[in-house]
Amino acid sequence: MAPRRKCPFCGSKQWHKDSSSGLVACSEGHVIQNFRNESGETQDLGNYTMRKRILKSGRKKRARQSRADPKLYHGERARFHYYQCLQLVLRKQIAALIALWDLPPEFETVCRDIWGLHLTLLPRPPPAEPYHHMREQRGSDSDTGDTKPSLDNPKESRSEDDDPQSSSSSSEEEDPELAELLRENSELSSSDEEKDHTSQKQGVQSNYRFVSTYDRPVNCIAVLVVACWTMRLPVMYKDFIDVIESYELPYLDFLRLLSSDMTCHLTKHAVRALSPHFAPSTFYIHRFASRLAKLMYANYGVFTPELNASPVLWRVVQQCLGGTPTLYGLAKRLGYILSLPLTLHPSLSPTLRRIAPGDPDIHIYDNIPPELALVATAIVVLKLVYGLDGKLRLPRDIKDPASALPDVRGYVSAFRRMSEADDRHNEKRFSSKVSMPTGDMDLATIDEFLDFCERVLIKSPRGESDQQILDNYFPLSTESGGARLEAIAPHSIVEGLSATKINVGETTVLQPGESYTIYHSRDILGNLSEEQALIITRSAKWVGVSDDYLCEVVERFERRLRRWYYKERRREKEESERERLFDGMKD
Question: Where does the record place the Rrn7/TAF1B N-terminal cyclin domain (predicted)?
Answer without folding.
Answer: 173-258
